[in-house]
Amino acid sequence: MNILDRYHAMEYGPAPEARNEADAWLAARDFGKALFIDGGWKAASGGKTFDTSEPSSGKLLAKVSDASAADIDAAVAAATKALPKWSASSGYARAKVLYAIGRAMQRHQRLFAVLESIDNGKPIRESRDIDVPLAIRHFIHHAGWAQALDRDFPGHKSVGVVGQIIPWNFPLLMLAWKIAPALAAGCTVVLKPAEFTPLTAILFAEICERAGVPKGVVNIVQGGPEAGAAIVNHPGIQKIAFTGSSEVGKIIRKATAGSGKKLSLELGGKSAFIVFEDADLDSAVEGLVDGIWFNQGQVCCAGSRLLVQEGIAEALIAKVKTRMSRLRVGSPLDKNTDIGPLVDLTQLDRVKGLVAEGAKQGAVCWQPDAVLPSSGYYHLPTLATGVSPANILAQEEVFGPVLATMTFRNTEEAIELANNTRYGLAASVWSENVNLALHVAPQLKAGVVWINGTNMFDAACGFGGHRESGFGREGGREGMFEYLKAKLPLGPVIKPAVISAQPVEQVDGAAIDRTAKLFIGGKQVRPDGNYSLAVATAKGKLAGEVGFGNRKDIRDAVSAARACKGWPEATAYNRSQVLYYLAENLSGRAGEFAARLSELTGANAKAAREEVEQSIERLFLYAGLADKFEGRVHQPPARAVTLALHEPVGVVGIVAPDASPLLGLISLVAPALAMGNTVVAVPSERYPLLATDLYQVIEYSDVPAGAINIVTGRSAELAGVLAKHDDVDGLWVFADAETCAKAEAESIGNLKRVWSGNGRGLDWASDEAAGDAFLRRAVEVKNVWVPYGD
Ligand code: NAD
What we know:
Keywords: Oxidoreductase. Residues 41-487, 537-755 form the Aldehyde dehydrogenase domain. By secondary structure, the chain is of the alpha/beta class. It is built from 28 helices and 35 strands. A ten-stranded mixed β-sheet has the order 13-14-15-12-11-16-17-35-28-27, sandwiched between helices. The model has no long low-confidence stretch (mean pLDDT 96). Residues 165-170, 192, 194-195, 224-225, 228-229, 232, 243-245, 248, 251, 266-269, 300, 397, 399, 425 line the site of nicotinamide-adenine-dinucleotide.
């Protein structure tokens, strides 16, 4: 036997991380008083506890206080009491606290890592080298944001008391992602860890005690779904930040509808790991190990769908299998372990069930020969081949060490397969051709794209998804906005529409000529139902009739908006020019529009003219900003740059107000168009003729067919149709409170981003009713990580 043979024949010896410090901490703590409220440790008011156990053995670790609704009340009261002083404290004062937290965590880094691995089951290499250092980086990074608040976020202030609910897969890291930006922004928090993994949050609360966090600024309550629901529904909370499953995310979206609470949802995923034939296969295999077997695949952005180009599929799968055979499954505290146990027996059963179902549906599930430890919730790494796109393993988030493989022939097919999911969290693209990778990245429906890499995170780079992966971003500048509120000039309360005119059937003949049609796909079309609505002048006379749009008309308009590729793919300069033309053409007919405004609203000639002039000015503004509201380049502490690209949200539904019927509509439609969205607008129900008069202006302005669609009719009804439509990506509603609340509640199908005025309009004439606050809502930030170096 030569030296190399001997080397390969050698077995790994155990390399356990010492756990005595963690065991001593566990033994010394009173977990019956585990609620950290108002700077003190409390037992649950009802005396209830829940068990947390060790996934590698099933042994009980602690019986932890289970917060009741009364405890949540107490935590919210403490956060409310602490808010005025904390939010008014200087950025420097808050920065010092955040920095002190980061430094104190550094001093206890090892204890955090060991506790995390004991409680969650993740390999110590991961908790030690990834979770804990990243969590610390988050606090230190956000110390800077606290101080830079006035400089970087002018006109913004803290959103108030926030409720934060996190999952068990990255207990400390998710806590850091939530608490650091909230404190930087001047918010006070009530955070609930997941019931499987309460321990590191308790240690973190101890750190808060020592790091000088004022009482009540951070409150950490333990418990399960009931405690979570008490936070979500608490009237004293102004924002909910949730990370967890899409299922619970939808419950929360519905529960907070109409409450005015700001909401961010970081949910599940089914991310694609795309390997092109020119990829460096060995690197791709290492990437895969990280992409799907990191944290046993219990990762929201796990690359759980391997899409591989046909020509290299066999070679890549062979390499993957060889590599899988070398993955070491074992104790999370062993430094050689690659794969630890799943978090709980329920999770193990779920994963096994999904693998069995996937196999039943035709997938071939392969596992390496390996002996699993005799106790604990272990699951072997699993490779599923022969997976059809409809297979449960290709569609459902498994949240376990299971990789579903599919092949593709060309780039288009790769993109189509990658996007064939209801999620939109992350994707990896592997190719040695950076041109190809940067061609594919923008076409993937994902909030984060890693090129020749995977699972790269940094506090300075936003993370988050769209579609059923939720909305909002964590980290960096984008993440800070989630805890801030912009000063928007509020308008009066919007009352529900008074329904006076009933729809009348359109008849052929003279009357039809007076009926303005709908504007769909660049054409004026008759409403599906063939009914129209009379529109009255200010003096109560008949001004004209408009189409009575219905569900089918909205569906047609959404299809036209979706089919319009010319607008989102146009250059920003091109969009800018078209918006300038719109302004120019509206200007050419300013007198006519002013007369129409006076006739319908009764506004005097001067006021009407002013509204038209302001509408033109606003079009000009967004024409100018179309090629200026751009993304950024981040330089994270890695050999990579992160391109934070501004992408359009997609198809945006807009329900415009009656107040300032021309300016209100244009103030909403123009920023959406400027950023490359296509729009389905429901104009003012009372004064729709101002929108129908715009058809010709649009037609003369080179707007591509389908970029703007206008459906007149009953706002409340059409808002509901837009909210329920799963091909609408964003919805902006300025209507009465009930319509706004319903739109939010009914948006859960695809979790579209809803911006509602909550029953209030804006003062559309104010300069503050324009600009970045609108443009930000018109974009999704996609973070594309591009590595460099050999
Ligand atoms: P989960 O949704 O079951 O639970 C998450 C948290 O919500 C827990 O704290 C739980 O107690 C609480 N909760 C449960 N029901 C609730 C209710 N009705 N009201 C309020 N709170 C409630 O998710 P999980 O199983 O703990 O975590 C796994 C999920 O988290 C996966 O889907 C994963 O993709 C997702 N996740 C997403 C991200 C991201 O950034 N996008 C990060 C990590 C995990």
